[in-house]
Structure formats: structure tokens, C-alpha cells
Specification:
This protein is α/β, with parallel strands linked by helices. The protein contains 11 helices and 10 strands. The chain has a 10-stranded mixed beta sheet with strand order 3-2-1-4-5-10-9-6-7-8, with helices on both faces. The protein is elongated and about 70 Å long. This is Universal stress protein.
């Protein structure tokens, strides 16, 4: 039996343009799921100076403004928190304290290449958070499609379950996608062995069977069996391309996060990090 939808949702806001879309998304999700909405604003601590108290007052004003906007959107009470320090660390710590089941946050208007070079607060939260993180971007909400990237991991299973519940809440369709990396291209494979296509077909069939099992497990939540797709290629590229299909705008992408350390993430990268940096639409990332 799949877990219920998270009862506590933490909305992280900085008052920027992207935060308004995240607020709208969080309020809609909480309204439909009957979940509590909590809101946090983190102001960065710089060297103490004559303007420190002024900046604190500005942060308090911003928080109050965002609480009023969230309460208006939700039609109910929203509890706010003002934290001081590094945003990613403070947001993740508060999520632990509240035992939040989902963090929702916006994304600054950086292009894919800028996000690739600079990273972002949302990326820091994803890497530290104890719960799933929904990063809202793309200018429109709600999405009409949800694409779940599945790699057979526990994080991917959790992403699929939560994504299915979000799809039901929003009336969106859901599709499961798995990428099968092929090291040799077709021409090279043909030169090496005429029979190499046979084991490739066998491997693809096994992936399809495993993905079909994931799809069947979600039928009880969705009320239908989601479509599945297994494609050759690099995982992030396959998932991103699938999310861009159709005329309804970018889909919500849901993926799991593997427990790589900081050095391994720098050295190897990760599918979730690539998708977070390159996706034009919203992204849901679940820890293992």
C-alpha cells in the first residue's frame, strides 16, 4: 500500500519572481491534499554592520508579506519562520524539525548554462533535504503531464509514488521512462558481432518488464496503468526529451536522488542534478 500524501509541506521563499509561482503551486497542492502549509524565509548573514538591523527588518517584512499571500491563496492559516544563515542548510534543518514530507521552492531566472556553472540554492536543498523537494519553474502551473524517470532505485520508487499522488491531485497524466545506456553505437556493434543485437533486445525486454511492474504498482493510486517507455541513451537526456514532448508545455519531471557524497557529485555528476539544472519545467526529486 502506498503512503499517504505528506501532511506537512514547507514552502521556501525569497520573495523573487519565481517564489510567486512556487507559492501558487504549494497552496494548490495543500488545498487539494488537505495538508498543512508552513513557510520559511532565510536571510543571509553577512558581516555585522550598521545596516544589519535594517536588513533583519526587511526580512521580517518580506516574510509577513509572503505569509499573507500564502494565506490568501490557501484560504487558511500558514505558519511562518524567519531563519538566519545559509539558505540550503537552514531550509533543510527546518524541514527536519517540522518533519515535513515535501519542500516546495521556486527557481531564480537563470538559464540552463548559468545553472550549470553556478548551481543554485535549490540544488543545495536537494542535496541536503531529508524529504522530497519540488522545484517549480517554467512559468505555468499546474502541469498537464508528469514524467517519472525510473532507474530501479529506491529513490525512483519513492519519486514515482509521490508523483502519482501529485498527478491525481492536479488531474495530470503520468508516464514512466527508463533509459538503457548502450556503450557501442550500431555501426561499431555490427563490426564486432552480428549477434550483439540479440542480447540488447533481451536487456531491453527485461527493463520493460521491470518498468511494467512499477506501473502496475501505481494503478491503485492513478486509477489506470501508466504508459511506460524504455529508450536507449543517456538517462538525463532521455528523460528531458520525453518531458518536452507534446503541446502542453514542459512536464513535471520526477526522479530519485542517489546518495552520492559531495566529491562524487563533482566527479561523476548525477542524473537528478543534470535534470535540475537543464529542465525548463518543474522538477520533483526524492531521496533514497
Amino acid at each position: 500500500m502506498l503512503n499517504r500524501f505528506p501532511q506537512r509541506v514547507l514552502l521556501a521563499t525569497d520573495g523573487a519572481a519565481g517564489a510567486a509561482l512556487a507559492l501558487h503551486a504549494a497552496a494548490e497542492i495543500c488545498t487539494r491534499a488537505d495538508s498543512e502549509l508552513h513557510l520559511v524565509h532565510v536571510w543571509r548573514t553577512l558581516e555585522s554592520g550598521p545596516d544589519t538591523e535594517l536588513r533583519r527588518q526587511e526580512a521580517c517584512w518580506l516574510l509577513r508579506r509572503e505569509i499573507l499571500a500564502a494565506e490568501a491563496a490557501l484560504g487558511g492559516e500558514v505558519k511562518g519562520y524567519l531563519r538566519e544563515g545559509m539558505p540550503a542548510e537552514e531550509i533543510s534543518a527546518l524541514a527536519r524539525e517540522l518533519e515535513a514530507g515535501l519542500i516546495v521552492m521556486g527557481s531564480r531566472d537563470l538559464g540552463p548554462m548559468e545553472r550549470l556553472v553556478m548551481g543554485s540554492v535549490s540544488e543545495g536543498v536537494v542535496n541536503q533535504a531529508p524529504c522530497p523537494v519540488l522545484v517549480v519553474r517554467g512559468g505555468a502551473w499546474p502541469p498537464s503531464r508528469v514524467v517519472v524517470g525510473d532507474d530501479s532505485s529506491e529513490g525512483a520508487r519513492r519519486a514515482g509514488e509521490l508523483a502519482a499522488r501529485i498527478a491525481v491531485l492536479l488531474g495530470a497524466t503520468l508516464q514512466l521512462v527508463r533509459a538503457y545506456p548502450v556503450v557501442l553505437d550500431i555501426s561499431e556493434a555490427a563490426r564486432l558481432s552480428e549477434s550483439i543485437a540479440v542480447p540488447l533486445r533481451v536487456a531491453m525486454s527485461r527493463h520493460e518488464a521491470a518498468l511494467l511492474g512499477r506501473a502496475r504498482a501505481l494503478e491503485g493510486v492513478l486509477g489506470y496503468r501508466p504508459r511506460i517507455r524504455v529508450m536507449e541513451g543517456e538517462a538525463a537526456s532521455v528523460i528531458l526529451a520525453t518531458a518536452e514532448e507534446g503541446d502542453g508545455g514542459p512536464a513535471l519531471i520526477a526522479v530519485g536522488r542517489r546518495g552520492l557524497g559531495e566529491l562524487d557529485r563533482l566527479r561523476l555528476g548525477s542524473v537528478s542534478t543534470k535534470i535540475l539544472r537543464l529542465s525548463r519545467g518543474p522538477v520533483l526529486i526524492c531521496p533514497a
